[in-house]
């Protein structure tokens, strides 16, 4: 019996993605698979790096504008609502908002969504210690599944998609994702989405290629995951991380680079993949935006900008959106 036929559903999905991605030109793997437990821990380290400004910029917005954000997300006249966060991670920034809502006596349930069970367990344990009055309903799912569930989610909701994760989608995927978010929204529902804004290109590039090599380890961990879960034999000594940024397109692109001609066997696929010297696997996009671009994107997706908040330096924007009227 082929090994791929006895894989569990999650691993089978990963195997299918890898099989399709490594047949493309250029070869491609999705950044959604960065976030196994080890990847989630590495990303927590990335967020604390001196080069990685987005986390600090968004935290500054929550600290400076927390009360106004809470008011913008709380549905008028609704006795209770759900605060659903896609890709919750460690919830560090979100806790600032949760405290504002609790202090304002808002009646709500926090529903963090994350693909990593380890990250979710840590978040829930922390919330129970730090915010014992908070009602928490954790969901361990990927974005696609969570979006499907949103369509049947009862009552009024505010959906958070923070940390510039929207920038990881290419233009067509981004529009489709926002349309999926917009579809289940009622008139009182709200979205809060974090957008990294365009700025000094050198600062942007440095944020994705730090001096300590943590981002490189994060990218390379994807190969470690394939070795563990799919029985691949990537030799990490012959791979390196590379990233670039284009001010014209606003795109940071990250790659894994094969430093020599090599073959990689993937047992779960019963395939051997050839890599030329210096051939790349494209693993991530991270797009940066202007405020006019955000408004145009929202309109195209069937959304309207209710209000937006930026940090003092104008590095980042948290944008409150609602379904377009009419």
Automatic annotation (TrEMBL):
- Keywords for this protein: Methyltransferase, Transferase
| InterPro entries for the chain | EgtD (IPR035094), EgtD_Methyltrsf_superfamily (IPR051128), MeTrfase_dom (IPR019257), MeTrfase_EgtD-like (IPR017804), SAM-dependent_MTases_sf (IPR029063)
Q: Which GO terms describe its molecular function?
A: L-histidine N(alpha)-methyltransferase activity
Q: What is its EC number?
A: 2.1.1.44
Histidine-specific methyltransferase SAM-dependent domain segment(s): 15-321
What protein name is recorded for this chain?
Answer: L-histidine N(Alpha)-methyltransferase
Please give a single GO biological process term from the UniProt record: methylation
């Amino acid at each position: 019996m082929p090994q791929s036929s006895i894989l569990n559903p999650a691993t089978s999905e990963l195997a299918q993605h890898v099989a399709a991605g490594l047949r493309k030109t250029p070869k491609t793997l999705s950044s959604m698979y960065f976030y196994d437990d080890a990847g989630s821990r590495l990303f927590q380290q990335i967020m604390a790096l001196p080069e990685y400004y987005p986390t600090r910029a968004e935290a500054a917005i929550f600290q400076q504008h927390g009360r106004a954000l809470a008011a913008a997300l709380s549905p008028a006249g609704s006795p209770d609502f759900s605060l659903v966060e896609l890709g919750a991670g460690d919830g560090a920034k979100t806790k600032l908002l949760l405290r504002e809502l609790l202090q304002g006596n808002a009646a709500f349930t926090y529903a963090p969504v994350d693909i990593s069970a380890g990250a979710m367990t840590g978040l829930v344990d922390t919330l129970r210690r730090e915010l014992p009055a908070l009602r928490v309903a954790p969901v361990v799912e990927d974005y696609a599944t969570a979006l499907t569930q949103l369509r049947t989610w009862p009552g009024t909701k505010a959906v958070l998609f923070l940390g510039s994760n929207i920038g990881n989608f290419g233009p067509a995927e981004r529009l489709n994702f926002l349309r999926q978010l917009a579809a289940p929204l009622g008139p009182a529902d709200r979205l809060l989405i974090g957008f990294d804004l365009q700025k000094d290109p050198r600062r942007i590039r440095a944020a994705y290629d730090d001096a300590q090599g943590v981002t490189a380890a994060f990218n390379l961990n994807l190969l470690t995951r394939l070795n563990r879960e799919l029985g691949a034999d990537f030799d990490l000594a012959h791979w390196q991380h590379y990233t670039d940024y284009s001010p014209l397109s606003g795109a940071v692109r990250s790659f894994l680079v094969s430093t020599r001609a090599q073959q990689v066997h993937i047992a779960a696929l019963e395939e051997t993949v050839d890599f030329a010297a210096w051939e790349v696997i494209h693993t991530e996009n991270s797009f940066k935006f202007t405020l006019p671009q955000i408004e145009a994107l929202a309109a195209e997706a069937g959304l309207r900008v209710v209000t937006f908040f930026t940090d003092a330096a104008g590095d980042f924007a948290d944008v409150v959106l609602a379904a377009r009227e009419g």
